[in-house]
Amino acid sequence: MMLSRRDKALLTVLAAALVGILLVLALLGWYLWRESVVAEEVRLGKLASRLGEQTEQAIVDARDLLDHLNQLETAPCSPEHLGALQEAAMTRPHVRAIGYWRAAERRCGVGFIQGQPLKPPQASRIYDTGVIAWWPGPATAVGGVELFLIRFGEHDLAIDPLLVMNPGLLAEQKVELWVEGMSLAVHPPGAGLTPPAELAPGLTVDRANNRIMARFSLGTLFPIDIVAMQPLGLFWQRYFPTLIGAGLLGVLLVVLWLFAVLRYSRHHLSLPAELRDAIGGGQLSAVYQPIVDLASGCCVGAEALARWRRDNGDAIGPDVFVPMAEESGQATDLTLAVLRVVLAELGDLLRKDPGLVINLNLSGSDLASPRFSQALAEMLQAAKVAPASIKLEITECSLLNTSHVSEHISALRALGHRIAIDDFGTGYSSLAYLENLELDTLKIDKTFVDGIESHAVTSSVIGHIIEMASSLRLDIVAEGIESPHQARWLREQRVTFGQGYHFSQPLAAEQFCSWCDEQTGAAAKT
């Protein structure tokens, strides 16, 4: 019988194990080291990409801010003018100063650097658009900090490039950021990394110097290069206990361990890329958890829940791919992909029945993303679905971890959407906090519904939650209703809406439409 290539490789490994455990352990150590390097290379590449995007966004934002300040109609250097400059500087931690110029004279300004001209003798770049920029250097140093200066029209900005890079993300790594072939920032200061021109694009393992180098380039509005370095010594510290443990398992367990590490590494290194392809290729699906009127039993809408099945048939749960999407910067793309499925499957129903509402879950990045709100409006307009038919659900954690929450919510409500706070009671929201937000609906988390008519602590909390929501005149939706007595108790407490397996499990679009028709017919008969 002819053996396959895979079987021959397996026999080779087994034969090597019989020769001696030490040889097997040596092979295992080499393999684990190689896989750890691959994982760190991927991580450094993602970090470089994120830093590059942050830098580009900061520079574009600076240009747009200067254009906005130039168009202000307030009198120059008046209290109103200085207030506008102060507000712009306070909302951007990396901006150290903003100044107003008349010809070659700086008339006034705000920020940490007062009364200084901030005008080195020679500009680094003068663009056709009128923008003038000075790269960090001794001539731009103030208080020991070399600043990046940009002037457009009658205003200028002084930017601390190290704050643009967000040092909290860098940990023990050395990173240098280059824009248009000139060094903009280096962390830690004085690290002196290899210039990008001397590195090949992508990732390089420098075994001679015991380090990994990564070069990432962005070529959109202007060239940005990021060079990052990670010592290889950290890898040995991280994987040494694993090597010791594997050696104690014996020859057979070592072979199984090799297989498990290979499977695990391939799965976790490729899963974010698979998710990106699934989102771009329209491979995500949705199911709909019906929401009913507790008094009449009529279906008033549903919560859209994302589902993902890989090409090999494995189903990946939302508790895995949703956090992964947030960590890899794909959260907004995921939300828009779910909305696209909802409009394709239920668009006709929403156009025919404007009273039916589909709830769409948002992440904190969606809430703060101008791209999301713009795409949301464009998709609904193209589908001819009213914004009121799509209610936006935001978790407490998203509210607390997103800056300018009230402004973002007001903007979405101005588009015609109603806003629900999801999983209420699992975070840290207070009555005073909720009073300052323009919310329409409060959804009580399943944890508290489970405690109904029990002696659990949560059984007393749910009453206070209902009372608080009623005082704010919010609609209330109870999640996770699984029994008739829970539904009856909630109805007696004047909770308006509910969802859960007592009414229906999450349904595919066609099943949801049929279920709604059945519930409406049953309610009409009663």
Helix fraction? Answer: 40-55%
Mean pLDDT value? 80
Total beta strand runs:
22
**Beta-strand proportion:** 15-25%
Question: Compute the gyration radius: what is it?
Answer: 29 Å
Q: What fold name goes in the CATH topology slot of the largest domain?
A: TIM Barrel
Low-confidence stretches: 1-21
Report the oligomer: single chain
Describe this structure in words.
With 526 residues, the protein is of the alpha+beta class. It folds into two domains: 210 residues, no CATH class; 243 residues, EAL domain (TIM Barrel). The protein contains 17 helices and 22 strands. The strands form four sheets. Strands 14-15-17-18-19-20-21-22 form an eight-stranded mixed beta barrel, surrounded by four helices. Strands 2-1-8-7-4-3 form a six-stranded antiparallel beta sheet. A hairpin with a 4-residue loop joins strand 11 and strand 12. The longest helix is centred in the N-terminal third of the chain and has 50 residues.
Chart the SSEs and their pairings.
Blueprint: H1 5-19, H2 21-70, H3 79-90, E1 95-102, E2 105-111, E3 125-126, E4 132-134, E5 141-142, E6 145-146, E7 148-152, E8 155-159, H4 161-164, E9 174-179, E10 182-187, E11 202-206, E12 211-219, E13 223-231, H5 233-248, H6 250-280, E14 285-293, E15 299-309, E16 315-316, H7 318-327, H8 331-352, E17 357-362, H9 364-367, H10 370-383, E18 390-395, H11 396-401, H12 405-414, E19 419-424, H13 431-435, E20 441-444, H14 446-450, H15 457-471, E21 475-478, H16 484-492, E22 497-498, H17 509-525
Parallel strand pairs: 15-17, 17-18, 18-19, 19-20, 20-21, 21-22
Antiparallel strand pairs: 1-2, 1-8, 3-4, 4-7, 5-6, 7-8, 9-10, 9-13, 11-12, 12-13, 14-15, 14-22, 15-16
